[in-house]
């Protein structure tokens, strides 16, 4: 409670007038991030052995989505002070004055409790516990601690965005497995090069907000080298579903080709350095990384659905 009161004072809640619309609260959920959560969780549900009734699967997916939205709302509540000084976040509901900090906090907490309780009652408490931990990890460990204290914020904090397929898997089976851990690792290792590519472009924004992103703390050259290292590791782990047998030949070829392109784009960033095309090259990797991750999970989903329909 003391932390909440202190944070309200730091944010300066008296500056907000409220009067939020439904759309403003929906924006608090970070719908673009939520769409990735829903999709990767769906893949975890479909790939899990044994299957689940479609209605229960839909409930699980909804609970995971609401939990992700709760994390987003709590993140925006705590980060309202830095969102105000960053160009890409200044228009969010809280810094723009459309939602009060108190409303965002209450909204996030209610959704968090509701999502965990629903998943536990409808499916199982193992999945619910994993969802609760994910919300805690993103809202507290990443947002309140790592984001403002270490350039490794994205590396460690990326775990929060990597849990959804594991939660989906656990919703069906009641536990985790090597396959679900691999799905987790694919997203976990994708996160650093994805966000560092953006950080190279938006470093002035992060510096103005006092966020110790890698380019600010270690420099652009070091960040580019680390992007290459993580890109290679990500490309290799991307082949793991094929190597372990829960991804087919189509997946293996897709992962191999996209992984090679991903590494190539990361090397381009390294070669370009701080040249005139540096921002363009970094954005190219950032945008391709979104397609890359979506394609990997889409092929896994497609192969599994084809097997189900054929059998």
From TrEMBL:
Q: Supply the alphabetized keyword list.
A: Cell membrane, Heme biosynthesis, Membrane, Transferase, Transmembrane, Transmembrane helix
Q: Which GO terms describe its cellular component?
A: plasma membrane
What InterPro entries does UniProt report for this protein, alphabetically?
A: Protohaem_IX_farnesylTrfase, UbiA_prenyltransferase, UbiA_prenylTrfase_CS, UbiA_sf
Identify its protein family. Belongs to the UbiA prenyltransferase family. Protoheme IX farnesyltransferase subfamily.
Q: What else is known?
A: Carbon 2 of the heme B porphyrin ring is defined according to the Fischer nomenclature.
HAMAP family recorded for this chain?
Answer: CyoE_CtaB (MF_00154)
Which PANTHER family does the UniProt record give?
A: 4-HYDROXYBENZOATE SOLANESYLTRANSFERASE (PTHR43448:SF7), PROTOHEME IX FARNESYLTRANSFERASE, MITOCHONDRIAL (PTHR43448)
Under what name is this protein listed? Protoheme IX farnesyltransferase
Source organism of this protein record:
Methylobrevis pamukkalensis
């Amino acid at each position: 409670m003391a932390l909440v009161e202190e944070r309200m004072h730091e944010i300066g809640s008296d500056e907000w007038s409220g009067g939020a619309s439904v759309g403003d609260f929906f924006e608090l959920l970070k719908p673009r991030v939520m769409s990735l959560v829903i999709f990767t969780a769906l893949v975890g549900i479909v790939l899990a052995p044994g299957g689940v009734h479609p209605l229960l699967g839909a409930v699980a997916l909804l609970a995971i989505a609401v939990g992700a939205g709760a994390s987003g709302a709590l993140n925006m509540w705590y980060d309202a002070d830095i969102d105000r000084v960053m160009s890409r976040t200044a228009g969010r509901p809280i810094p723009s004055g459309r939602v009060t900090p108190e409303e965002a906090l209450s909204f996030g907490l209610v959704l968090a409790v509701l999502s965990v309780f629903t998943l536990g009652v409808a499916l199982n408490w193992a999945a619910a516990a994993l969802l609760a931990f994910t919300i805690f990890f993103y809202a507290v460990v990443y947002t309140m601690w790592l984001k403002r204290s270490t350039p490794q914020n994205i590396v460690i904090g990326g775990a929060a965005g990597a849990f959804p397929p594991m939660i989906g898997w656990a919703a069906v089976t009641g536990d985790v497995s090597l396959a679900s851990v691999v799905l987790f690792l694919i997203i976990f290792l994708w996160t650093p090069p994805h966000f560092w590519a953006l950080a190279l472009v938006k470093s002035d924004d992060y510096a103005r907000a006092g966020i110790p992103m890698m380019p600010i703390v270690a420099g652009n050259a070091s960040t580019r080298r680390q992007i290459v290292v993580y890109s290679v590791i990500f490309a290799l782990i991307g082949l793991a579903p094929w190597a372990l047998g829960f991804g087919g030949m189509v997946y293996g070829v897709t992962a191999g080709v996209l992984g090679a392109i991903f590494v190539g784009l990361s090397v381009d960033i390294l070669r370009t350095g701080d040249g005139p095309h540096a921002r363009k090259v970094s954005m190219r990797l950032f945008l391709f990384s979104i397609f890359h991750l979506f394609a990997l999970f889409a092929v896994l989903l497609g192969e599994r659905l084809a097997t189900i329909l054929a059998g």
